[in-house]
Every structure is written in C-alpha cells, then in structure tokens.
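Please check this.
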Amino acid sequence: MNQNLFTAVCKGDRNKVKELVNSELAGNTSPNVILNESMIPAIRNIGERFSKHEVFVPEMLIAARAMQAGLDILSPVLAKAGHKALGKVAVGTVKGDLHDIGKNLVSIMLKGAGYEVNDLGVNCPVEKYDAAVQNGATVVLCSALLTTTMTYMKDIVDHFKSNPNVKIIVGGAPVTKDYANSISAHGYGSDAYEAVQLVDSLFKSA
C-alpha cells in the first residue's frame, strides 16, 4: 500500500492524489496495484467511517471527488491493460426527483470499488433503467430524496420482476428497509458504503 496515496484519498486532496497516481505510474507500478492496494481501501475506509458517523457528507464528498480524480487518470490505463470490472451496475435517481448528491456518492464509490457504473443521472423513468439493463447492467440502484417520488421505486421493481437476473437496490433519505421489503426490492442501502457492500454480496452470490 502507498500510505501517502491512501491518506490523500481519505483527506480528499485531489491534487495530491493526481500527483501520487502519476508518480506511481511513472515508476511502473501496475494500475491494478494502485487501485486495489491503495485507492479502494481508502474509499472503503472513508465509507466505513461514514457509516459509523465518524465523518459526514462533506468529508465523504471531497474523498469521493479525490477518488474520481485518481480514477480519471487510471481508467484509460486500466482499459488499455485489459482490466475487467467486477460487474456492471446502473445508478439513477427516480422519475420526478432531481436530487443527486447521494446518487453521485454511490456512483463514485462503486467505481472506486472496481465496478463499471452506468450513471443514469436524475429524473429516471423505468425506460432509462431498462436501457441500462439491456446494455448489460445486472444490478440497478435507485435513489430518491422525496416521499412523493420514492413510490416510483415500486414501478421499477415490478418492471424487472420477470427478469431474475436483475437485482434492485433502493435507498435515499425517506426510504427504509421496511419499505424496500414491502416493494420486494432485493436490498436497501442506508448510505453509500452499505450500498457498495450490498452490490458486493449480490455479485458474490450470483
């Protein structure tokens, strides 16, 4: 592990992350090693601390952005080296809802964890999720911040009921585990870190 890179991601120091990633690549360190031994452990660490209320949304956001800065450098190198993602997922805020902070955190953390992420954006109708599944996503994560929009999650779950290969995870401020169970979602993430853990478990059990 490059402790300096680990610390830079955790602290959200984007410039330091870019400098250290470029330095590691210049020293012929494998991009997989940079990602798997320093950056992924860092973003998982900050996610775990967020779950324990040791850090909060602002710290999570700056760490996620620092992670993204490193990924922007590593992604083309990984692609050239034939790196394979752990799996393909889609992330989007449901129809009628324009909130994206939580969705963006989940998206960046999933990318950092090694998944190929199709970020669908906000105000996503069923058709948008369906297109992502047609494009290979097998786990779909739906976010909502309003009680008036979270009910649309049931439409998404119902749409994919006939496809046993697609798993739906729901989350967002008004969403609860009980609600997720009531609409037969495959999982509920109370925060970005838990969402990544759920995706991990779904791919491992597939």
User: Anything to note?
Assistant: The radius of gyration is 17 Å. The mean pLDDT is 94. The chain has two domains: 3-80, 88-205.
